[in-house]
Write a structure and sequence with these properties.
It is a single chain. Helix content is 29%, strand content 30%. The protein is built from 4 helices and 9 strands, in the order αββαβββαββββα. The strands form 2 sheets. A 7-stranded antiparallel sheet has the order 3-4-5-9-8-7-6. The protein has a two-stranded antiparallel ribbon with strand order 1-2.
């Protein structure tokens, strides 16, 4: 009996090591998941968004209706990889230009970008706004659309920083066309 007790720990050691190593090595590194041809109101191609995404297996895109008729109406498109949000594009309508508030972004590492009326970029996102119908006086309502694209777990911040201004510009052009901005 004593010989069996000594044998079991010695014999189980290689089995446990084999199970641990097998679980860790698939032989292939994961890549970004395959995306639909067009996403987010058909603004972006899957090919141009793919480098901003982490590796994964399953993609889900959730897109709301792009209808911004009243103050604080918003539209959001979210892209999930393996159940976790990884890219989000959103638009919010404001009546006054002074209501466009980026103070939470501007505290970080931001740089101005030439997109829309004004835009900024930071590690992990970019934002701009367009004046669909500017206010005639400082207190008169207008129609301003705040547009943002946020990324999460981007594998290469440099690629994201290079790609986001062009994606945001597409979002601006789509918004201007869709809402018939003057």
């Amino acid at each position: 009996m004593r010989a069996i007790r000594k044998f079991i720990p010695v014999a189980m050691g290689p089995v446990l090591l084999l199970v641990t190593l097998t679980g860790c090595s698939d032989g292939e590194a994961k890549s970004a998941p395959k995306l639909p041809g067009r996403i987010c109101w058909d603004i972006f191609s899957g090919k141009e968004v793919s480098p901003l995404l982490p590796p994964g297996d399953e993609v889900k895109v959730s897109t709301g209706t792009f209808s911004l008729l009243e103050e604080l109406d918003s539209a959001t498109c979210s892209l999930y990889v393996d159940g976790k949000i990884q890219l989000q594009a959103s638009a919010t309508r404001r009546e006054l230009e002074s209501q466009i508030d980026w103070s939470s972004y501007e505290k970080g590492e931001t740089d101005p970008i030439d997109v829309g009326e004004k835009g900024i970029i930071w590690p992990g996102g970019a934002v701009a706004y367009v004046a669909c119908e500017p206010s005639k006086t400082p207190s008169a309502p207008g129609n301003y659309i705040n547009l943002s694209i946020d990324t999460f777990d981007t594998p290469d911040d440099g690629k994201a920083r290079n790609a986001l201004p062009a994606l945001l510009e597409k979002f601006v052009r789509f918004t201007q066309r869709e809402l018939q901005c003057t």
